[in-house]
Amino acid sequence: MLVQIHTDKNIEGGSRFSEYFTTEINEQLARFNEIVTRIEVHVTDENGSKTSPNDKKCVIEARIEKKQPIAVTAHGDTAEKAFFEALEKVRRLLETTVEKIKTH
Question: Which Pfam family name is an example for this entry (predicted)?
Fold first, then answer.
């Protein structure tokens, strides 16, 4: 599973940020390695340099082999909170998708 992390200019990314998120994705979504070909994470600050509650947005898109991609969105006070909420959402959605694939 290929993992790509993208941030906007208002989010301090860097290699440590990307490595941390990539490690978390690989640990949390390891059991989906056979069906997920790529995970893309987009983290943005919706208000730019202004600070406001829940202004960090994380979109995680999972590309599933021979299926349409699925995407989830989450907001949080920090990029990390938004990321972990989105990661939980995509994990649950992948579980549901795998169950549907197994029943067909």
Answer: Ribosomal_S30AE
- Residue (of 57, 37, 39) closest to 47 by Cα position: 57
Per-residue pLDDT reduced to its tens digit, 30-58: 999 989 999 999 999 988 767 778 889 99
Q: How far apart, in whole angstroms, are the C-alpha atoms of residue 64 and residue 7?
A: 23
CA atoms of 89 and 22, how far apart (whole Å)? 16
Rounded Cα–Cα distance for residues 23 and 80 (Å):
13
